[in-house]
Write a structure and sequence with these properties.
The structure holds two protein chains of two kinds.
Chain A: E1 2-6, H1 24-34, E2 51-52, E3 75-78, E4 87-92, E5 102-108, H2 112-116, E6 119-124, H3 136-139, E7 148-153, H4 155-158, H5 169-177, H6 183-202, H7 218-237, H8 241-278, E8 280-289, E9 292-295, E10 297-298, E11 301-302, E12 305-308, H9 319-341, H10 351-365, E13 370-374, H11 382-400, E14 405-409, H12 412-428, E15 440-442, H13 447-461, E16 465-469, H14 475-485, E17 489-494, H15 500-506, E18 509-512, H16 514-524, H17 527-560, H18 565-570
Parallel strand pairs in A: 1-6, 13-14, 13-16, 14-15, 16-17, 17-18
Antiparallel strand pairs in A: 2-9, 3-4, 4-7, 5-6, 5-8, 8-9, 8-12, 10-11
Chain B: H1 2-22, H2 28-66, H3 71-90, H4 107-138, H5 144-159, H6 163-172, H7 177-213
Helix pairs in contact in B: 2-3, 3-4, 5-7
Classes of the chains: A alpha/beta, B mainly alpha.
């Protein structure tokens, strides 16, 4: 059983522009990456000589031994940093690669399967993409990677698990035997299957045998669905309305059972694929040109290597990301500790946050409410959490000033958390009676419905201060412009950098990106929180220096013609 | 205190660390954990939807009952909500204003497509006017910085319309001078500023996450600063 499958070699992982990795640590990490070649899980067979295996056509250039990869270089191993779905097959680039040549990787479950022909074949084009140097997170940055070719074999794609058949009577009975459906469900499902089976032949003309294949005129083909519908309608016409309704309900129920079983089947297939991927496989390698194929061989026998995929515990391509995240966390924690010992740490002024008290005070003096508008972020988004932290402070100040706050929400969970936050803030301010649950409500789930409702409320109630905080999309300008027209002091803050220009244009103060996250710590003035802010600023300085050094090093390297692929690799956000 | 602060903080720390590590672990266990968390989020979100509905209804009922300013609008909330729920329960009924023969829609789809979507589009279209008024206010050359902003804005906007090629050809003998200048402003100064903000956001996120994971930042739990 020979089947041909073309393997698509994945392109390079997207190069990250962010220079988080461009730090002095990157230089040290380079060494780690250099030697971060994966440990091969496969057992490889040595080979010495390549020999022709099949015939060659007279019209094509002949494949010679120089077109065949070195048998010693041919190996199979677990693909590193993956979930156990891929096996890397590696070989040395041969001395010659004639035009039109393809590499063929034959995959079998046992060595004997090669003799019986029970194997699958993957064809690989010899493009530069298959060079090992294109995947430094698998092969490192050594010179050897320039001479190696590779492909990824996913066994489950070659040895696909059998798809379960349609939901026939037999399959339903099997599912009932397995306990997947109850006997009652089986009886109902069988009844529906019987109805469907009766309808099916009715849609085919009785005079045309099922096996006969004839050229159907276009008009008849087009009329087929109409005939089917008419037939079904005719059948249903014999039923009373109650019977028709019952039949419809039963079909709906059957559709649900079918959908449930399809989901279950999909899960079974995924589980089976994982099992298939986890098995041991045997590989042979060859080169193919037209109908000629030469297998990599030793002593006249094709070389067979063995390998298996294993789930890995770490994505080595993200090592740089992890190390830098941990370093930055360490900086933050260090400054938190310093702040605990030395309170009164200086933190730069943030105008937008300084203006919060002023805005609340003005609102109180004017006897107008304070509006707090949440963004569209969910409670799992950091920007929403940051907004909630600021809300706590604003609600506290508002309660202290005996003013009223209205909180507008787009998300139900954010609404529930906001209610709790405002209630607690009122209690802390010694005014639990100031909390009114109707002031903190879900306005609308839809983006523009939310805009319309909030804009209307702003125009009608004329708030004295408006805080627009969180993640925003197109609604940012609509809200801010309407707020601006009411004459209220507006303080906006978002981490959606595309919306920042709109806020800067229309609001009195804008918290740009990181300032939104710094806000709660800044407002609380608690030493530990201020320490984290200082750590954040130090991290920023650290990145600026690293960017400068990285830019200089890369510029000099390009000018001098140095090979700094490893340095570029450190700047790359790998996923594997 | 243990129930209200310690246990929630421990849960936050544990789940937070696991979610952080999940990004670095390709093992199927890690994927299973992520899927499980996603399911939990959906379940909690489902329950929260009821809370949201309660909050929404309560607010509008109070408004109507007390005849607060603008209470008439609150009636439309219930007309819309009850109407859409009713037609969804009714099922496959075809919309009353539907005149075609193909692509028949249920009344629910009809309501969504021919009421909600046009209303949303109407609100969205107001953006164009707001953008013009915001641009008018911003692009006044009051000082050097505002002047530079104005000049950059004119080049970028003009470089992105086809007529800029004709003007560029007449003025400089090359049709791509102004479009290229526009592109250069977007690709270099603009991108540099954007990346600076993005880096700041990334650092702010890490700092905020650390404060939350370590239990230093607890305002979101309603417990105060």
């Amino acid at each position: 059983m020979r089947e041909s499958h073309t393997v698509t070699v994945r392109p390079l992982t997207t190069w990250a522009a962010v220079a988080l990795a461009a730090t002095p640590f990157a230089f040290a990490l380079a060494l780690a990456f250099e030697f971060a070649c994966p440990a091969g899980a496969a057992e490889t067979n040595p080979a010495t000589i390549a020999e022709p295996a099949t015939s060659q056509a007279a019209t094509q250039p002949a494949l010679t031994a120089s077109c065949v990869p070195d048998p010693a270089s041919f190996r199979a191993m677990d693909r590193p940093s993956d979930n156990g779905s891929g096996i890397l097959v590696v070989w040395a680039k041969p001395a010659e690669e004639p035009n039109g040549v393809m590499y063929v990787v034959q995959v079998a479950r046992t060595k004997e399967d090669f003799k019986t022909g029970n194997f699958k074949t993957a064809e690989v084009s010899p493009s530069p993409k298959i060079l090992a140097s294109t995947k430094p997170n698998y092969f490192g940055y050594s010179d050897e990677a320039e001479k190696l070719c590779y492909t990824v074999i996913t066994p489950a794609e070659l040895f696909e698990p059998a798809e379960p058949g349609p939901l026939t009577e037999r399959r339903l009975r099997e599912l009932a035997d397995q306990g997947v459906i109850t006997p009652e469900q089986l009886a109902r499902a069988l009844a529906v299957v019987a109805v469907l089976a009766k309808e099916k032949p009715a849609t085919q003309p009785a005079t045309v045998p099922a096996t006969r294949t004839v050229a159907v005129p276009a008009t008849r083909t087009a009329a087929a669905p109409a005939m089917k519908a008419a037939s079904a309608a005719a059948q249903q016409a014999k039923l009373t309305p109650d019977q028709q309704a019952a039949l419809k309900a039963e079909r709906k129920w059957f559709d649900k059972i079918e959908a449930y079983l399809a989901k279950r089947d999909a899960e079974d297939i995924e589980a089976r694929k994982r099992e298939i991927n986890a098995e041991q496989y045997f590989f042979r390698l060859g080169v193919k040109l037209g109908d000629q194929t030469l297998l990599v061989a030793r002593d006249g026998e094709p070389v067979v290597v063995q390998g298996a995929a294993e789930p890995n515990l770490f994505k080595w391509g993200k090592l740089n990301n992890l190390v830098l995240s941990l370093i930055f966390c360490a900086i933050v924690v260090t400054f938190i500790e310093i702040a605990k010992r030395k309170p009164g740490m200086f933190i730069r002024k943030i105008a937008g946050l300084e203006a919060i008290n002023e805005a609340i005070g003005r609102s109180t003096e004017m006897d107008r409410p304070v509006y707090f508008i949440h963004g569209s972020g969910l409670v799992s988004d950091l920007s929403a959490i940051a907004s909630l932290n600021i809300l706590s402070h604003i609600a506290y100040r508002t309660a202290e000033h005996d003013s009223r706050i209205h909180v507008m929400n787009q998300d139900p969970i954010v609404t529930a958390v906001s209610q709790e936050v405002v209630q607690q803030a009122c209690t802390r301010a010694g005014r639990p009676d100031a909390y009114n649950p109707d002031d903190v409500s879900l306005v609308a789930y839809e983006q523009f419905a939310f805009v319309a409702a909030v804009s209307g409320m702003m125009v009608r109630r004329q708030p004295g201060a408006i805080f627009i905080l969180g993640y925003f999309g197109a609604e940012s300008l609509l809200l801010a412009e309407t707020g601006s027209s009411t004459g209220a002091i507006q303080v906006a803050g978002t981490d959606a950098y595309t919306q920042l220009p709109f806020f800067i244009t229309t609001c009195d103060y804008t918290l740009m990106g990181e300032e939104l996250y710094a806000a709660s710590a800044y407002l609380a003035r608690e030493p530990r929180l201020l320490g984290s802010l200082r750590g954040q600023d130090v991290g920023k300085a650290f990145i600026m220096i690293a960017l400068l050094i990285g830019t200089i090093v890369l510029t000099v390297a390009v000018a001098r013609g140095w090979d700094v692929a490893w340095l570029r690799g450190l700047l790359k956000a790998g996923n594997g | 205190m243990i129930l209200k602060r310690t246990i929630p903080l421990l849960i936050v720390f544990g789940i937070g660390v696991l979610a952080f590590m999940q990004d670095y672990v390709p093992h199927p266990w890690s994927t299973a954990f992520r899927d499980e968390m996603t399911t939990w989020t959906m379940v909690i979100g489902g329950f929260a939807m009821f809370l949201g509905l309660y909050s929404l209804s309560h607010m509008h009922i109070t408004k109507i009952r007390r005849k607060m300013p603008g209470w008439g609008y609150s009636i439309f909330v219930f007309i819309g909500a009850v109407g859409m729920i009713a037609v969804y329960i009714l099922g496959d009924t075809i919309g009353p204003l539907y005149a075609g023969t193909a692509n028949k829609k249920s009344l629910f789809d009809w309501g969504y497509e021919y009421i909600l979507v046009p209303c949303s589009a109407t609100v969205f279209s107001i953006l164009a006017f707001f953008m013009a008024s915001a641009a008018f206010r911003t692009f006044r050359a009051r000082n050097l910085a505002a002047g530079l902003l104005l000049a950059a804005a004119i080049i970028v906007m003009f470089g992105r319309v086809p007529v800029s090629e004709n003007v560029s050809l007449r003025l400089f003998g090359d049709g791509m001078v102004i479009p290229n200048l526009s592109k250069a402003i977007m690709d270099y100064p603009n991108l540099a500023a954007k990346r600076g903000i993005m880096l700041g956001i990334a650092l702010g996120m890490i700092s905020q996450s650390m404060r939350i994971l370590l239990g230093i930042e607890r305002s979101y739990m309603g417990g105060g600063d």
